[in-house]
Write a structure and sequence with these properties.
The protein is mainly beta and about 725 residues long. About 5% of the residues lie in helices and about 60% in strands. The strands form eight sheets. The chain has a 19-stranded mixed β-sheet. Strands 3-5-8-11-14-17-20-23-26-29-32-35 form a twelve-stranded parallel β-sheet, with helices on one face. The longest helix is centred in the middle third of the chain and has 21 residues. About 45% of the residues are buried.
């Protein structure tokens, strides 16, 4: 027998007819198997395909079988495991009326009409669970009546195959899909609401809904007078796709409550006149698309609405979420009637050079504390303080720049309230930008790089007197840390490490008191300007030196001339999270003259006063960061004077070895003053001039008559420059 029905096609009439339909059966004995009044049956692949009708708590279990359509009524139960259901004619594949079904383990239900139909009678509803199986219908993949429940899980697929088909059509029911797919030729899901039904719901978890030619989800009112909302949740990596670009369409006076959690959607939400929608984005969800006629939008917990054009929302609430005004290079306006919440962020784009700026306009009341994140740029803003970024009609809302300031050219700007209703960039209290900091620090760092490589005779070559008059070679590894304060023009930390090596020989004149040698080496200095902005200086150098030592009087002289090639690189962290870089090379040349005397005291003690004068000149340079910031540095000069004393004692060690510990103190003064830098035609000065004290301790050891070693530690401090630590360790071999 086969069920015959005829009724109007309007949605409400359809479902009421299905709920009250008294079946009329035509006899077809060869194709129909009846199970009535609690009877149960289990079939497998050995049973010929038949049509099954279950009535009054009957049950059918099919394991690996093939059947025709299955019609279950009045408390009956269908279980399909690895079973194929192939409906004939216009029959539904599996039809449940006040019954339940479990369809699992790669079962497949196919119908030219509706694959799976869940119907509620006057007394009770139907339910079905589909897992790892396919439900396919020409017109409808599945239909679900009032108060019935369809659960999809573990790779379930419900598909409508015709061009005008619907994946799932439901009325006042609950649909849950986990790790599943719903697809229709026209719409993925179509939901009908009614004021007598309050539990309408579609809950998606890591599932995909697609309308091939139309909207992914359509909500319609059954009678165009209801006020109950249809609740939809899109959770945990779920996706929606509409062939017409629409994810959710609300029609005919329907009301929708659309919540997106931890999912990323691309497409529009369109609400027809007379209908309504509330949209919630939560738990880092994103929605990229238009919101047309949406009444309420709430964005929470790192979620974000990404606009694709000018937008408007009646009521906007941000609670730790944000609104992004398109992508860089796009400039949009957002209009809202009311703004509320706290901790929200408006991600806006700007080009103050051309005057193009995203704007937020609140026509009514605005409350809460909100942030504005603007794009950074390397070029100078034009009229930065004259263009309102935010305008409100009324209220006590506050707006501040995300990250404290936005980097625009040579300076960083915060937001300031202008009048009662506008927020503009604060040009009065601007500070230098990270890009400017990096430029100034790099130009300023070259002298300290040079001096870190040079040091004094003792810290460069050890106690040369231990091998006096002998030719030899030496090597020295060193490291330094410098903290430069704001009073120098820009604050930064510099950490240096490097290696030097050299060789020398006595001149044939002067009784072996004169040594002449060459040196070379490499150092790397890392600069830290805070907020993630860094710089790097790679220094390669060659030089020559001469040293005079008079053993009888203890006097000595040391002269060094050194050429450097500096390779400089900026790596700037900008306020909008992006980075920009730039690099340039410069040359430097400098010299050092040191004069002192080693005075021997009783019990092998000694005191060694000394004076040193060092100077270096480093070429200026022009270079650009890749965000357009232009830098120009003048030639850098440094002239450093040092007066100090070393005290120590020689200890005889086993087998003629000598150990010489010592302490050192010095007064240091930098005579050179301003070094000017231009950034986008804005002139800045850095100045390391001033005095500081220097303290050190070390030990020199004559290991053999050919090998000596030394270790030296340094500390210095002044009002502009502190060296919290410095060290070097070296060895000399005489031949």
């Amino acid at each position: 027998m086969r069920l015959i029905h005829s009724f109007p096609v309007t949605p409400l009439a359809y479902w009421l007819k299905m709920a009250t339909l008294t079946p009329l059966f035509l006899v077809a004995p060869s194709a129909l198997a009846d199970l009535i009044d609690g009877r149960s049956k289990t079939i497998d692949g050995s049973v010929p395909a038949e049509e099954y009708r279950l009535i009054n708590a009957a049950s059918l279990t099919a394991n690996g079988a093939t059947t025709l359509e299955i019609n279950a009524q009045t408390g009956s139960k269908v279980t399909l495991n690895g079973t194929a259901v192939n409906a004939t004619g216009a029959a539904n594949g599996v039809r449940l009326s006040a019954s339940e079904a479990t369809i699992a383990n790669k079962s497949r239900v196919v119908s030219a009409n509706t694959g799976l139909s869940l119907i509620r009678t006057v007394t009770s509803a139907s339910s079905a669970t589909v897992s790892d199986s396919e439900i396919i219908g020409g017109n409808r993949g599945a239909t679900v009546s009032a108060e019935s429940q369809l659960t999809l899980q573990s790779g379930a697929r419900v598909i409508g195959t015709n061009a005008s088909s619907i994946g799932i059509e439901a009325f006042g029911s609950r649909i849950s899909a986990t790790d599943s797919t719903i697809m229709g030729g026209q719409n993925g899901v179509r939901l009908f609401s009614n004021d007598s039904i309050t539990d309408d719901a579609l809950v998606l978890n890591n599932s995909h809904v697609e309308g091939v030619s139309g909207s992914a989800i359509v909500i319609q009112s059954a009678n165009q007078t209801n006020s109950e909302q249809v609740n939809i949740e899109v959770n945990n990596g779920s996706t929606l796709k509409g062939g017409n670009g629409i994810l959710l369409e609300v029609l005919n006076g329907a009301a929708a409550n659309f919540a997106v959690n931890n999912s990323h959607l691309v497409g529009d939400i369109v609400v027809a006149d007379g209908s309504s929608a509330e949209v919630l984005l939560d738990r880092a969800a994103t929605l990229t698309g238009r919101l047309e006629n949406v009444e309420n939008l709430t964005v929470n917990n790192d979620a974000r609405w990404v606009m694709v054009g000018d937008g408007s929302v009646e009521n906007l609430s941000l609670n730790g979420g944000g609104v992004q005004f398109g992508n860089p290079g796009q400039y949009f306006n957002l209009s809202v009637e009311t703004l509320s919440g706290t901790g929200g962020t408006f991600y806006m784009h700007n080009d103050f050079t051309t005057g193009q700026v995203d704007t937020l306009t609140v026509s009514g009341n605005a409350t809460g504390n909100h942030l504005v994140a603007l794009d950074s740029q390397g070029t100078e803003p034009v009229g930065a303080g004259s263009k309102a970024v935010v305008h409100i009609g009324s209220g006590d809302a506050t707006f501040a720049m995300a990250g404290g300031a936005v980097d625009l050219g040579a300076f960083s700007y915060d937001l300031i309230k202008q009048g009662d209703n506008d927020w503009v960039l604060d040009t009065a209290t601007r500070v230098i930008s990270p890009g400017t900091q990096s430029v100034m620090a790099l130009f300023n760092a070259a002298p300290t790089v040079w001096y870190g490589e040079l040091s004094t005779l003792r810290t460069r070559m050890g106690e040369v007197r231990m091998d006096q008059g002998k030719a030899g070679g030496w090597m020295r590894a060193y490291g330094n840390k410098y903290n430069v304060s704001d009073s120098a023009g820009v604050a930064y930390k510099q950490t240096q490490q490097g290696i030097s090596f050299g060789a020398d020989a006595p001149l044939p004149m002067g009784d072996g008191q004169w040594l002449i040698g060459v040196l070379g080496g490499y150092s790397q200095s890392d600069l830290d300007m805070s907020r993630g902005t860094t710089g790097e200086v790679d220094s390669y150098y060659l030089g020559a030196y001469t040293t005079w030592l008079d053993a009888q009087s203890g006097y000595y002289f040391d002269g060094v001339v050194k050429y450097n090639r500096f390779q400089n690189e900026s790596d700037v962290q900008l306020s909008d999270g992006k980075k920009t870089k730039g690099n340039y090379d410069t040359d430097g040349i400098g010299a050092s003259l040191e004069f002192g005397r080693n005075i021997k005291l009783a019990d092998d003690y000694f005191v060694e006063p000394y004076a040193q004068l060092s100077g270096v000149m480093i070429d200026g340079a022009d270079y650009d960061l890749d965000n357009g910031l232009a830098a120009k540095g003048d030639r850098v000069h440094s002239l450093l004077g040092k007066v100090g004393t070393t005290v120590g004692r020689n200890f005889a060690w086993a087998q003629g070895k000598t150990v010489q510990p010592y302490l050192r103190a010095a007064y240091v003064h930098e005579f050179a003053k301003n070094s000017d830098v231009e950034v986008n035609d804005n002139r800045f000065s850095s100045d390391l001039s001033g005095s500081r004290g220097e303290f050190g301790a070390g030990v020199a050891v004559a290991m053999t008559d050919k090998v000596s070693m030394h270790v030296d530690l340094d500390y210095s401090n002044g009002d502009k420059l502190e060296q919290p630590w410095g060290f070097n360790v070296g060895a000399r071999y005489s031949w």
